[in-house]
């Protein structure tokens, strides 16, 4: 009997200890499920069962929402792809498959995006997004390697075409170095823009001849009129020439768009001499307002470039600066050579002391026909809205870049031009 009761006591003690351990574990589980309101009247087991039931319901809801989101993404009219940290294609919707001509892709077998989509621009955009951790955008002409076959279309309509598609991509960095990309087809907008530009070009060609005739007639009338009539004739002559310049500038813009490199004849140029000779051609206009040029920086820098187009660049920049510089003002130009980069370049800063740009205008300075804040123009010698667009096209054709902002000290306009010292292959 003594051994029996001793064994019973030991068994009950063990059972009590085990029950205490289970209660502790149940308490820990209940604390981890604190997002659910617990009913104190229930036992710990009851509370856990209730929480598990709620978790199952939440899981079912999340699963349903995930499937709904997946279906929405799949039928969305915008391309969607997701790549992992090693650039394997993880997700891809139907629109992305159509835009990027992605075929034979199995989500169960991960493949590199570059194996499925031969686009250097897209690959570089993803790498930059992963490196910077920022949201980036890019537009480019995509050349599909194979045509995307539309299953719902008749076979005769699925003729292979290799025309480029103008795409715009938005990239978003996510966790674990993954990147999400949304892609839009901008080809229709580009086609509309091209047709608009072509209409402007055709109209410009048609206007050039009658405008030239009107200019010649008004010039002839100037020689035979006197008094008030001569003033009116002079105004007609000036306005006609302004329209002729507008037409010519538009045709130049279109020419640079279509053949940016065709008319460039590269030769060795001494930059300071080019700049000063260009200023001399406009000096008579600057002298009327006592505006002077201040040259700073390197005295002798040689670059490779087309003398006629680069002269036009500095004519347009100087003309813009003169129009907006205050009387007795100074236009500064600073030249320095950047040898720290992989490819040496020349940095040209052109600064005036005028009223500067309106902050809302800055993103649109180089757009065609864009006319900024009228309060910035202090003279009646307003431009056509094409000069700076031509400047940017010429600079880009030379492999350079140009930016516009307001100078922090003078408050005036600040143009910075970066040109390579040598063209590729030289």
CATH architecture classification name of the largest domain: 2-Layer Sandwich
Sheet bearing the most strands, described? Answer: 5 strands, antiparallel
Class of the largest domain in CATH? Alpha Beta
Assess the beta-strand content as a share of residues. 15-25%
Q: Structurally, how many domains make up the residues?
A: 3
Structural class: alpha+beta
Give, in spatial order, the strands making up the sheet with the most strands: 2-1-5-4-3
- Integer-rounded radius of gyration: 35 Å
CATH topology of the largest domain: Heat Shock Protein 90
Question: Average pLDDT across residues?
Answer: 81
Outline the structure in words:
The structure is a single chain. The protein has 3 domains: 76-149 and 158-185, Beta-Lactamase; 189-258, Orthogonal Bundle (Helix Hairpins); 267-420, Heat Shock Protein 90, CATH 3.30.565. The protein has helices at residues 2-32, 44-75, 94-100, 113-116, 120-132, 187-222, 227-258, 271-287, 307-324, 387-397, and strands at residues 79-83, 89-92, 136-142, 165-173, 179-185, 267-270, 292-297, 302-305, 330-338, 345-351, 401-406, 413-420. The longest helix has 36 residues, at 187-222. With 426 residues, it is of the alpha+beta class. The chain is built from 10 helices and 12 strands. A hairpin with a 5-residue loop joins strand 1 and strand 2 (89-92). The chain is elongated, with a radius of gyration of 35 Å. The strands form 3 sheets. Strands 2-1-5-4-3 form a 5-stranded antiparallel sheet, sandwiched between helices.
């Amino acid at each position: 009997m003594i051994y029996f009761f001793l064994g019973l006591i030991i068994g009950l003690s063990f059972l009590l200890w085990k029950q205490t351990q289970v209660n502790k574990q149940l308490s820990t589980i209940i604390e981890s499920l604190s997002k659910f309101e617990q009913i104190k009247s229930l036992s710990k087991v009851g509370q856990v069962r209730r929480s598990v039931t709620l978790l199952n319901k939440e899981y079912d809801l999340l699963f349903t929402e995930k499937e709904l989101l997946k279906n929405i993404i799949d039928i969305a009219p915008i391309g969607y792809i997701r790549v992992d940290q090693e650039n394997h294609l993880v997700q891809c919707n139907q629109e992305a498959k159509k835009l990027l001509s992605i075929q034979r892709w199995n989500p169960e077998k991960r493949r590199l995006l570059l194996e499925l989509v031969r686009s250097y621009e897209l690959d570089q955009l993803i790498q930059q997004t992963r490196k910077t951790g920022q949201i980036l955008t890019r537009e480019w002409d995509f050349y599909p390697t194979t045509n995307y076959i539309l299953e719902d279309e008749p076979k005769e309509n699925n003729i292979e075409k290799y025309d480029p598609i103008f795409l715009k991509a938005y990239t978003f960095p996510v966790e674990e170095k993954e990147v999400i990309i949304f892609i839009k087809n901008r080809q229709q907008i580009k086609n509309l823009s091209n047709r608009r530009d072509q209409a402007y070009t055709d109209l410009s060609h048609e206007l050039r001849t009658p405008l030239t005739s009107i200019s010649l007639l008004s010039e002839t009338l100037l020689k035979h009129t006197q008094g008030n009539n001569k003033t009116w004739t002079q105004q007609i002559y000036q306005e006609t020439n302004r329209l002729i310049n507008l037409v010519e500038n538009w045709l130049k813009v279109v020419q640079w768009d279509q053949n940016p490199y065709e008319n460039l004849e590269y030769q060795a140029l001494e930059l300071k001499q080019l700049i000063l000779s260009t200023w001399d051609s406009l000096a008579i206009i600057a002298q009327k307002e006592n505006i002077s040029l201040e040259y700073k920086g390197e005295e002798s820098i040689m670059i490779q470039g087309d003398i006629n187009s680069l002269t036009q660049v500095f004519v347009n920049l100087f003309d813009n600066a003169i129009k907006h510089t205050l009387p007795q003002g100074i236009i500064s130009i600073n030249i320095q050579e950047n040898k720290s980069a992989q490819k040496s370049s020349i940095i040209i800063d052109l600064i005036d002391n005028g009223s500067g740009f309106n902050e809302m205008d800055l993103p649109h300075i180089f757009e065609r026909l864009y006319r900024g804040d009228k309060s910035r123009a202090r003279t009646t010698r307003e431009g056509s809205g094409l000069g700076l667009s031509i400047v940017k096209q010429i600079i880009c054709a030379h492999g350079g870049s140009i930016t516009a902002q307001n100078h922090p000290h003078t408050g005036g306009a600040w143009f910075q031009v970066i040109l390579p010292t040598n063209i590729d292959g030289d």
